[in-house]
Amino acid sequence: MNIFKLTGKHITHYHSNVHSFPLALTRDAAHIQLMTLQKGNKIGLHRATTPQRLYCVSGLLEVRNESSIELVKPYHCVQ
Predict the structure, then answer these.
(1) Residue 51, class by beta-carbon neighbours within 10 Å (0-12 exposed, 13-18 middle, 19+ buried)?
(2) pLDDT digits (tens, 9 = 90+) for 35-78
(3) What is the pTM (predicted TM-score) of this model?
């Protein structure tokens, strides 16, 4: 068993304020990351270059696109 601390980076692109921790990187266009958001912070609106899913672990997430705003509850995800 190996226990290690995740090292990540602070992302501010597109007016974001989030910390990102890579969990798995592949040779193809797939990246699995853990992102932590504090209350009031955000991942900025951007056009995704690959399919994305955002999972809510706790709290409520407000997600939006060009035409709607939705709330995502814990143990739900948005794609």
Answers:
(1) exposed
(2) 788 888 888 777 877 778 888 888 898 888 888 999 999 888 88
(3) 0.62
The Cα–Cα gap between 63 and 79 comes to: 10
- Measured between alpha carbons, how far is 40 from 17 in angstroms, rounded to an integer? 9
Angle at 78 between CA 8 and CA 53, to 5 degrees: 40
Contact at 8 Å (CB) between 69 and 45? no
Contacts of 44 (CB under 8 A, 6+ apart): 13, 14, 15, 16
- Taking the C-alpha atoms of residue 68 and residue 78, their distance in angstroms, rounded to an integer, is 13
Q: For the chain, percent helix, then strand, then coil, each to nearest 5?
A: 5, 35, 60
